[in-house]
Amino acid sequence: MTTNPHFKVGDRCFSHYTRDAARGISGWGTIKRINHTVRNAVHGVTGDPLPDTTWYDIRADEGHIELCDDAHGTDWNMARIVPPDIAKRYGHGDDPAPYGVDEHGTPLIMCKCGIATEPYAPCGSPECQVPYVDSLGD
Ligand SMILES: [Zn+2]
Hints:
With 138 residues, this protein is mainly β.
C-alpha cells in the first residue's frame, strides 16, 4: 500500500518513544529531514501487506537528533512520533513550542511577517524593521 509521508520538514511532532522525563527529554521536536520510506513491507507473522512507513530525522527541543517513524500516519498507536493534536488527545498536553526552538532550546515566536524568530529579536526580514514583541511579556 503506497502512502505518502505524514510529516514534512519543519513540522512539529511528539514522541512518547523518546520522551524521558527523568533525563529532561520532553519528547517534543521538529522534523529536520525525511530520512527514508519503507515500502512493500509485510506483516512479520501474517504476511499481510503493510502501509508504507517513513522515517525522519527529528531535532528534539533539547538539541539532539532522533530517528523516528510515522507508522504510516494511520496507526498512531504504533507510531514513534505523532502530530501535536494527536499528542494532546493522548494526554501529553499542548506543544510547548509550536514554532520550534532556537539552538538554546528557547521557544520561538511567530513574527508579524510570518517568520518564526527568537523572542524580542528581529526576524531578519527587511519588512520587519523593529523587533516584534509578542504577548509573552504581558
Ligand atoms: Zn518579521
